[in-house]
Amino acid sequence: MKYLGIIVAAAIGLLGSSVAHADNASVRAALGIGNEYGGLGVQVARTTERDRWSIGAGLAGHSDFYGTAYGAAISYQRADLIGVRELEPNRHALGVFIGPIGTEGEAQVRNGQIALRDYKAVMGAGVNYHYYRRGINSPGWSVGFGVGHGSGEHRDMTNVNIAFGYQF
After folding, report:
1. Which of 24, 27, 132, 134 is the most buried (most CB within 10 A)?
2. CA–CA separation, 29 vs 99, rounded Å?
3. What is the pLDDT of residues 60-71, one digit of tens each?
4. pTM
5. What are the backbone angles phi and psi of residue 134, rounded to the nearest 5°?
6. Is 6 helix (H, G, I), strand (E, B) or coil?
7. What is the pLDDT of residue 20?
8. What is the model's pLDDT at position 28?
């Protein structure tokens, strides 16, 4: 819960900052799967021709035994660092994110019975790459990959993920 408050406060600051208030900025919704979507989830992004700030929330994991874990994420991507061609939209983006890296579960047994089950997202940070088929500031499909690392209550986690989504 502590991480969710930090992410929400950072998102409000980032999406409302003067950097994100460019003349050609637009607010876009997206659906997808990946760290920057909070797992399998939704995203709201403020995009320009070269930048993309986003917040996401989604289903980080599910277990029949432990239950459901939800995640929230914030990310920034820059699309004018690689693969830039004159008169073409910026399709290749490099970025950073804070969000769920994985999940962990915990069960407590009292008097031979399970008394408590807890399943939660392990929050962390990482870097990612995305390819936007029609450009970072246009509706369309995107695919990417990322690497992240985080610390849970019981262990550290590193993940490599593939992200897939559609930006409206």
Report:
1. 132
2. 18
3. 888 777 778 899
4. 0.77
5. -110, 10
6. helix
7. 46
8. 92
pLDDT at 143: 96
Q: What's the rounded Cα separation, in Å, for the pair 168 and 28?
A: 6
Cα separation, 54 vs 21, in Å, equals 14
The dihedral of CA 164, 162, 137, 87: what is its sign?
negative
Going from the C-alpha of 28 to that of each of 34, 42, 52, 86, 87, the distances in angstroms are 17, 11, 10, 24, 23
- Give me the half-sphere count of Cα atoms (radius 13 Å) on the Cβ side of residue 70: 9
The dihedral sign for the CA sequence 80, 135, 58, 35: negative
User: Integer distance in angstroms from the first to the last C-alpha of the chain?
Assistant: 29
Is 37 in contact with 95 (CB distance < 8 Å)?
Answer: no
Contacts of 122 (CB under 8 A, 6+ apart): 100, 101, 102, 103, 104, 150, 151, 152, 157
Contacts of 99 by beta carbon, 8 Å cutoff, 6+ apart: 7, 35, 36, 38, 56, 71, 72, 73, 74, 75, 123, 124, 148
- For 38, counting Cβ atoms within 10 Å of its Cβ (0-12 exposed, 13-18 middle, 19+ buried), the class is buried
Tokens 């277990």 identify what position? 63
Q: Which tokens hold the place of 150?
A: 């985080």
Give pLDDT, residue 111.
82
Quick one: pLDDT at residue 131? 94
